[in-house]
Amino acid sequence: MIDKNINKIRSDIPNYVELIAISKTKPNEDIMKAYMNGHRSFGENKIQEMSIKFEELPKDIIWHMVGHVQSNKIKYMAPYVNLIHGVDSFKSIKIINKEGQKNNRILNCLLQLKISEEDSKFGLEANSIKKIIFSDEYDQMKNVKIRGIMAMATNTKNKDIIRNEFIYAKHIFDEISAIDNNLEILSMGMSNDYHIAIECGSNMIRLGSLIFGERNY
Ligand SMILES: *Cc1c(COP(=O)(O)O)cnc(C)c1O
Fold first, then answer.
1. Cα(188) to centroid of ligand 1, in Å?
2. Which atom of ligand 1 is nearest to 207's Cα?
3. Where are the domains of the chain?
4. Distance CA 89, CA 108 (A)
5. If phi over 0 gives left and psi between -120 and 50 gives alpha, with beta otherwise, what is residue 104?
6. Is 22 in the pocket of ligand 1 (CB under 6 A)?
7. I need a surface site. Which of 11, 193, 195, 217 has the fewest CB within 10 A?
8. Distance CA 88, CA 107 (A)
9. 87: which strand partners?
């Protein structure tokens, strides 16, 4: 089923939209089913789980950290992570830069924009994002590169709420990417709302349950 699910989603989304398979809580054999079907980009939200999978699975897998980024965990992903989605403080940017330096890598990350009123969602206000991106301090960092924005909509059945939040994220993304052309990724859309996200301009979607089935925590 996993390969069928991926094929179906792929045939259903525009080519420019990158699909990240969110494999959190799922076993290696599930990831390998997607891998054997040609899929390479996977996302996890817990660093320990991601690092174990990184060790055990083929080395050409492209790993995405999609969980909230705790600054004391960055050192564990710095050697191999491809994109860190949920960055929501300048403090984390500084630590990512430092860990990138130690590993002689440039670490790609996304700033998480707060678009939902829900308390459980992390994220920065648009003004804080602009302040970071256009600061001299960030400009001088050599080992971290902000590549765009990540956003999570409110968990609701009300599509108008979701749509308005995604439209807002696209608006902010357009503003900042017009000034800095390193900012090219807009990561938004999950299993329940990716159609709306793509309509609103997302170019990276993060799908878990639609690919791997419901998670049992
Ligand atoms: C779990 C998770 C997803 C995937 O959620 P699904 O609803 O299973 O598609 C996407 N993004 C983040 C940040 C997640 O934590």
1. 10
2. 9
3. 2-212
4. 15
5. left
6. yes
7. 217
8. 15
9. 111
Long-range contacts of 119-128 (CB under 8 A, 24+ apart): 121/152, 121/154, 122/68, 122/86, 122/88, 123/88, 123/151, 123/152, 124/88, 124/89, 126/172
CATH class, 2-212 region: alpha beta
- Asked if 14 and 200 touch (Cβ cutoff 8 Å), the reply is no
Q: Which of 66, 118, 157, 202 has most ligand 1 atoms within 8 Å of CB, for mutation?
A: 66
C-alpha distances out from residue 77 to 46, 65, 71, Å: 10, 8, 11
Residue 42: other Cβ atoms inside 10 A? 25
Tens of pLDDT, residues 20-64: 999 999 999 999 999 999 999 999 999 999 999 999 999 999 999
Instruction: State the chain's maximal CA–CA distance in angstroms.
Output: 49
Ligand 1 centroid–CA 90 distance in Å is: 24
Q: Using CA atoms in the order 57, 111, 76, 71, what is the torsion angle rounded to 10 degrees? A: -150
Strand bridging mode 62-68 / 41-44: parallel
- What pLDDT score does 84 carry? 98
- For residue 95, the CA-to-ligand 1 centroid distance in Å is 25
CB burial of residue 55 (10 Å; 0-12, 13-18, 19+): exposed
Model pTM score? 0.96
Q: What is the CA radius of gyration of the chain?
A: 17
Ligand 1 pocket residue status of 170, Cβ below 6 Å: no
In the Cβ-directed half-sphere of 79, how many Cα atoms lie within 13 Å? 7
